[in-house]
Amino acid sequence: MTTALASAPALRIGPIELDAPVVLAPMAGITNTAFRRLCREYGAGLYVSEMITSRALVERNATTMRLIQHHESETPRSIQLYGVDPTTIAEAVRILVAEDRADHIDLNFGCPVPKVTRKGGGAALPWKLELFGEIVRGAVRAAGDVPLTIKMRKGIDTDHLTYLDAGRIAEDAGVAAIALHARTAAEFYSGQADWSAITALKSAVMSVPVLGNGDIWSADDAVRMMAETGCDGVVVGRGCLGRPWLFGDLANALAPDRTPTAQGVDATLGFVARAFRRHAELLVDFFEDEGRGCRDIRKHVAWYFKGYPVGGETRAQLATASTLAEIDELLATMELDAPYPGAAAEGQRGRAGTPKRPALPDGWLESRELGAEASCALADAELDHSGG
After folding, report:
1. What is the pLDDT averaged over residues 241-258?
2. In whole angstroms, what is the distance from residue 138 CA to residue 124 CA?
3. For residue range 106-137, what is the model confidence (pLDDT) as tens digits?
4. 243, HSE (Cβ side, Cα atoms, 13 Å)
5. Distance between CA atoms of residues 89 and 80, nearest Å
6. Domain spans in the chain, listed from the N-terminal domain onward
7. Annotation: CATH topology of 16-263+353-379
8. Catalytic: 294?
9. Which region, left, alpha or beta, applies to residue 28 given φ > 0 means left and ψ of -120 to 50 means alpha?
10. Quick check: 70 pLDDT over 70?
11. Which residue blocks in 144-255 are alpha helix, DSSP H?
């Protein structure tokens, strides 16, 4: 049974007061409008877009412009930006604000993916303190009354930690909140998140909320993180893959006085099948293409049905279905009254990977200042597409 937090204060991010101290972490190829809408149907909190590349937004790349759209039911609207150039990031923020496309903007300083860190972006960037500060200060000014937050990691590796320095700089720059994934870039998603780092950041940053991220697989994990670290809210990523109803569990545990937005979770196979079908339907609506929506849901099959008595043949057929009618036929063949399988359905979801040396620009770690070589690496760092 999930333990509720005795008294969870409301989480405010600038002028936005959330009805639960919960944030959906941006995940490339996952947190599109369809998934955000689905999670919101079950729970409460803030639901952030996929990572949007600032250069692509400024250049109005067609795919990017589609990714920053929100359904009319989505409020507050939240967009995460990635970039390495202060001018480009500030301009991207100005576009979002001037065109009324977001109620909240987050900056990504936590991505550990080699194609990002190799050019000095993501989790690599806070090592260059002056550049980091320039980006954050410029983005906060450009955002005006729209709250701007940052999400980061502990650092590049255990010998090159950045989160305390970056946290203080961001606080001084006027961000509305700071989220910490309690791993280094070198750890990727492996091992166990170091929640003590969240405690340390909370002690170092006093004037704005600190949010914790890492190894929240259940509502009990969220309750424990907040109790142990003193953080003001939680950010949930891989734990909700194939489990959008986790946000209902989180809201009930962290904001027990609120009115539930959805029916309780029975976790039978039938309940899971209905969630899967709803997700597919929303993807079809998002892409405005049934075939493409049904192709996109395929990546979610293993996550949804983890631990449930769904045979390999049925899973394979779901992973090749091209219409909602085909999906309906396959779901109807399942033992929909099969009960929740317990531990078999719990635990990690998504790829954990293994610790690895982060890919960085040549000479990146030699100094915390931005030298000529590092500047050259950053010149072509921003990808021309989003969602990655």
Report:
1. 90
2. 19
3. 999 999 999 999 999 999 999 999 999 999 99
4. 29
5. 11
6. 16-263+353-379, 269-339
7. TIM Barrel (3.20.20)
8. no
9. beta
10. yes
11. 163-173, 195-204, 219-229, 246-254
